[in-house]
Amino acid sequence: xxxxxxxxxxxxxxxxxxxxxxxxxxxxxxxxxxxxxxxxxxxxxxxxxxxxxxxxxxxxxxxxxxxxxxxxxxxxxxxxxxxxxxxxxxxxxxxxxxxxxxxxxxxxxxxxxxxxxxxxxxxxxxxxxxxxxxxxxxxxxxxxxxxxxxxxxxxxxxxxxxxxxxxxxxxxxxxxxxxxxxxxxxxxxxxxxxxxxxxxxxxxxxxxxxxxxx
Length: 214
Ligand code: AP5
Fold this sequence. Notes:
By secondary structure, the chain is an alpha/beta fold. Helices cover 47% and strands 15% of the residues. The protein contains 9 helices and 8 strands. The longest helix is centred in the C-terminal third of the chain and has 15 residues, at 165-179. Residues 7, 9-15, 30-32, 35, 52-53, 56-59, 64, 85-86, 88, 92, 123-124, 127, 136, 138, 141, 162, 171, 200-201, 204 line the site of BIS(adenosine)-5'-pentaphosphate.
């Protein structure tokens, strides 16, 4: 089973991904997480990606496609994967379809989480994360501990550089210009599952599983 999680920044892709991946026993592959992990390690890939991520721009297609292709070849992904944040351009979607077809595989569902821009700005500007385990918090909805240490692993809580107001605006612009055409692209192929991404995390989860027929 190959499932794509599509949606603007802050739509809740990362929040919902773990449960979906667990349900289908498939790995959760987040291109954003891979870039951040590489940046933390100071690898050439991480340093290259940072040039784009800091301004909210997209990392070049060629680099991302190569990265995801080799990740999908790993043993744990041969029976499927949950792709979070990839593809993000029509060129990436075409490259993915071609890559999978060459291996006799295909995308099964594209789940698109829909949330209005005003709510996204609120979610992203209040988001805080653990530098060690990646756990997510929100200053209003699920506040991090007052000592600034993660309640799960004790790691340092921080705000992502791209969660600053000016960068959020650019990420939304980039989404509307470069990624939202994928809604039509997957719709034309009968793979799109449109989901209302507002309401509680649990409500959104129920809608996703219902759309997937799970
Ligand atoms: P990436 O890490 O993929 O960021 P993103 O798509 O902008 O997504 P986010 O992680 O910000 O949001 P999310 O939808 O996962 O929301 P979350 O669950 O965290 O990419 C970062 C950068 O990497 C890109 O800008 C680009 O530069 C580069 N990149 C990555 N992939 C690429 C690609 N394929 N091609 C080119 N470049 C690429 O939730 C957000 C907040 O909302 C949290 O605080 C959460 O607690 C809260 N929340 C979640 N659900 C709810 C709810 N139902 N109600 C209230 N609050 C909620």
